[in-house]
Amino acid sequence: MISATLYQGENGLTGFTAAGHSGWAESGEDLICAAVSVLTCNCVNSLESVCGVIPVITREDPEQGILAFKLPERSAEENEKAQILMGALKQGMRDLADSYPEYVRLMIQKTSQK
After folding, report:
1. E strands, 1-112, where?
2. Using CA atoms in the order 99, 37, 15, 56, what is the torsion angle rounded to 10 degrees?
């Protein structure tokens, strides 16, 4: 199962962690794992290229199915843009978890981080 956590701070979402493999199919053929990879990689890359916010990768291990990142200090304008992409990640992950609850679990964790 893929366990995903979005971190909710005072000023919006502040980071994300995903760990595990869905087990839906064999490696290289698992569409659920591929969907999570596309959502997370697109979010990280778009935060940088679209918003100018370079996420801090706190943990990455593709073999173990782990990606964790947090947003760095950012201006109010950068945060406004970043929240759109983080919201898209949240919606995509929620859709996957709702459609495949036996393979994906999404949690929202409140933090003190801004």
Report:
1. 2-9, 12-19, 56-61, 66-70, 104-110
2. 180
pLDDT of residue 63: 75
Higher pLDDT among residues 39 and 66, named by residue: 39
pLDDT at 65: 78
Q: Which DSSP symbol is given to 52?
A: -
Q: Take residue 50 and report the two structure tokens written for it.
A: 């679209």
Rounded CA-CA distance 32/2 in Å is 9
Provide the whole-model pTM: 0.92
Q: Measured over all CA atoms, what is the biggest interatomic distance in the chain, rounded to whole angstroms?
A: 43
Domains of the chain as residue ranges with CATH:
2-110 (3.30.70.1490)
Q: What are phi and psi of 48, to 5 degrees?
A: -75, -50
